[in-house]
C-alpha cells in the first residue's frame, strides 16, 4: 500500500516533508511535530486535472500549478513550491511513482521555491561539498560511488538542492543533503567491482539499481566549493581543466535539474541571476573521459582530489 497508516514526516533536500505516501528512501524527521515545508497528498476525487491523452506523457502550467502526467504511473500537481498532489494510475508500480516524486516533483518544487537544483551528485571532501554534473550517461553517480569507496560521504544523488545565502549576506551556496541512496547502472556496478551485491533493480530498469547507503551518507548541509562537469571525449586519456569567469555559466545553466521547466514556469530572469551568483562563488572544472578504452573512475577521483587540494591551498 502506498498510503501510510498515518501521515509520515521526512527530512530531505533541506525540507520538512509531510507525506500521505510512504517514502522509505527518505530519513524520518527528528522532530515530527515541527512545521512542514511541503505536503504530499493523494488527490481528492473533486480535484480538477487537465484533460490528458492517457497514452502520452504530458506537462502543463496553469498559474502557480505545474501539472504532469506519466503514462501508467500517475498525474502530479506541484503547487507554489509547497504542495504535491498525486493521483496514481490503476495498478501503477509504487517504486516508479516514488522515483518521479523524488525526482521531477522535487526538482520542480525547488524551482518554484526559487532554490536552484543541479542535476548530478555531490560528495563531501574536507568539510566542503563538490558537485558532479553532466548529461545522462556521463558517469556522475559512478564517480560519486568511487569517492564513497575512498571514504568520502555522499550528500546527494540526481537532484542537488542548493540554498543561497540570505539576502545581503556573502558566501557560498549550501548543498542540502537528499537521502541515503544512489542509482547505479549495471556497467558502473561492474566497473566498481560490486557484482554479486544484492542491489534491487529500479522499477523502470533491470539494468539500473538502487544502492542504499548508511554510514556513507552525510546528512549535514555543506557549502559548495566546486562544480565538475563530466563529459566524454574522443581522446584516449582523462583530462581536467578549470573554467573561469563566463565559461562557468553554461555549465550551471545547462545542468539545472529539469531545465526545460524554467521557461514554462517563467523563471528565466531568476534562473539567470541565480546562476550568475553561483558562478561567482564556486570554482568550476570540465572533466573529460574517453568514450572508449580503459579508464578508471578512481583516476578521476585522483585528479579531482589534486585540484581540490590546490583550490583549498589557494584560499588559505
Short key terms for the protein model shown above:
single chain; 316 residues; alpha+beta; Rossmann fold; 2 domains; 8-stranded mixed sheet; 5-stranded mixed β-barrel; 6 helices; 18 strands; 24% helix; 36% strand; Aldolase
What does this protein structure show overall?
This protein is α+β, with helices and mostly antiparallel strands. The chain has two domains: 8-113, no CATH class; 116-314, 3-Layer(aba) Sandwich (Rossmann fold), CATH 3.40.50.300. It is 24% helix and 36% strand. α4 crosses α5 (268-281).
Compact summary:
The chain has six helices and 18 strands. The protein has 316 residues and is an alpha+beta fold. The chain has two domains: 8-113, no CATH class; 116-314, P-loop containing nucleotide triphosphate hydrolases (Rossmann fold, 3-Layer(aba) Sandwich).
Q: Assembly type of the shown chains?
A: single chain
Query: Biggest sheet: strands side by side, in what order?
Result: 3-1-2-4-8-7-6-5
Q: From the alpha-carbon coordinates, what is the Rg to the nearest angstrom?
A: 20 Å
Q: Span from first to last CA? A: 53 Å
Given this structure, which CATH class of the largest domain is correct?
Answer: Alpha Beta
| CATH second-level architecture of the largest domain | 3-Layer(aba) Sandwich
**Secondary-structure-derived class:** alpha+beta
- The overall number of domains is 2
Run of helices and strands: EEEEEEEEHEEHEEEHEEEEHHEH
Strand content: 35-45%
Number of helices: 6
Helix content: 10-25%
CATH topology descriptor of the largest domain: Rossmann fold
* Fourth-level CATH superfamily of the largest domain: P-loop containing nucleotide triphosphate hydrolases
Organism: Paenibacillus sp. BIHB 4019
Protein name: Aldolase
Amino acid at each position: 500500500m502506498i498510503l501510510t497508516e498515518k501521515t509520515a514526516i521526512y527530512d530531505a533536500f533541506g525540507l520538512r516533508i509531510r507525506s500521505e505516501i510512504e517514502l522509505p528512501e527518505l530519513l524520518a524527521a527528528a522532530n515530527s511535530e515541527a512545521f512542514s515545508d511541503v505536503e504530499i497528498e493523494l488527490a481528492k476525487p473533486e480535484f480538477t486535472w487537465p484533460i490528458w491523452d492517457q497514452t502520452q506523457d504530458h506537462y502543463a502550467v496553469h498559474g502557480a500549478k505545474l501539472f504532469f502526467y506519466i503514462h501508467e504511473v500517475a498525474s502530479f500537481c506541484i503547487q507554489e513550491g509547497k504542495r504535491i498532489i498525486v493521483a496514481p494510475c490503476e495498478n501503477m508500480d509504487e517504486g516508479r511513482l516514488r522515483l518521479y516524486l523524488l525526482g521531477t516533483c522535487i526538482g520542480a518544487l525547488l524551482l518554484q521555491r526559487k532554490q536552484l537544483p543541479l542535476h548530478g551528485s555531490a560528495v563531501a571532501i574536507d568539510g566542503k561539498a563538490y558537485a558532479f554534473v553532466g548529461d545522462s550517461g556521463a558517469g556522475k553517480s559512478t564517480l560519486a560511488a568511487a569517492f564513497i569507496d575512498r571514504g568520502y560521504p555522499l550528500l546527494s544523488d540526481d537532484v542537488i538542492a542548493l540554498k543561497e545565502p540570505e539576502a545581503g549576506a556573502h558566501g557560498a551556496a549550501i548543498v542540502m543533503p537528499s537521502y541515503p541512496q544512489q542509482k547505479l547502472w549495471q556497467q558502473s556496478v561492474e566497473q566498481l567491482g560490486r557484482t554479486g551485491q544484492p542491489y534491487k533493480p529500479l522499477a523502470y530498469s533491470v539494468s539500473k539499481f538502487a544502492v542504499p547507503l548508511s554510514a556513507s551518507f552525510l546528512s549535514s548541509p555543506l557549502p559548495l566549493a566546486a562544480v565538475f562537469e563530466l563529459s566524454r571525449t574522443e581522446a584516449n586519456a582523462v583530462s581536467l581543466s578549470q573554467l573561469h569567469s563566463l565559461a562557468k555559466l553554461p555549465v550551471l545553466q545547462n545542468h539545472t535539474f529539469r531545465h526545460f521547466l524554467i521557461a514554462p514556469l517563467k523563471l528565466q530572469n531568476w534562473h539567470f541571476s541565480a546562476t550568475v551568483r553561483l558562478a561567482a562563488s564556486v570554482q568550476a572544472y570540465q572533466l573529460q573521459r574517453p568514450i572508449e578504452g580503459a579508464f578508471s573512475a578512481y583516476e578521476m577521483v585522483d585528479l579531482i582530489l589534486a585540484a581540490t587540494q590546490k583550490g583549498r591551498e589557494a584560499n588559505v
